[in-house]
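Hey, quick one: can you model this chain's 3D structure?
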Amino acid sequence: MSRTPTRGHVRVKTARNRTAASARWLERQLNDPYVRRAKAEGYRSRAAYKLLELDERFALLKGVTRVIDLGIAPGGWAQVVRRRVPKAAIVGIDLLPVDPIDGVTIFEMDFMDDAAPALLAETMGGKADLVMSDMAANTVGHAQTDHLRTMGLVEAGAYFASDVLRPGGAFLAKVLAGGADNDLVALLKRLFTTVKHAKPPASRKDSSEWYVIAQGFKGVPAIPPDEG
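Sure thing. Here's the predicted structure for all 228 residues.
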């Protein structure tokens, strides 16, 4: 790999089998302070700092005893919970294989599997205090389609949360293009007492990602339209 430092900035040149786009991505990674900090502090991804910053603002981890991490890979968010609330029961689920994390139970399965809510709740020994999701749907390069697919994933996460949260619990999820759309906000307001949006400093400025923070679960599970 060819690196040309310029006033502390690492510049990556294109090389055989490396496209200009991949070179730009690698250069951004090498110069990202959150990436360097994550490596130094033992977090699996820079995304850990998004949760840390959101927790500072919304006290999401205060007093939690059971936490579910939807789409846990690679595990940075679960690491944050483990460090901040070491006695909490943490369960993660993902379609992808995830390297073990001490103190975290991980299932390789789809969270939309009918068996998932009961399995995760049973594993934790009760209802969750927090359901968190840093998932985004696989992109196809068409902005409107990508947005709709990710919003559908967040909506599915909200229905899942309504099955597994205790009254008063919270739901945190990644959304795109400035926040949740009207239908999703309406759903969350039916389920929770407060619904807010935030973009933590660790989220890149050029990224369209935001986060929706729904707190104060009202205790009534929502029924998806196709089941009502």
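One thing worth noting: Strands lie at 3-6, 9-12, 66-70, 89-94, 104-108, 128-133, 165-176, 192-198, 209-217.
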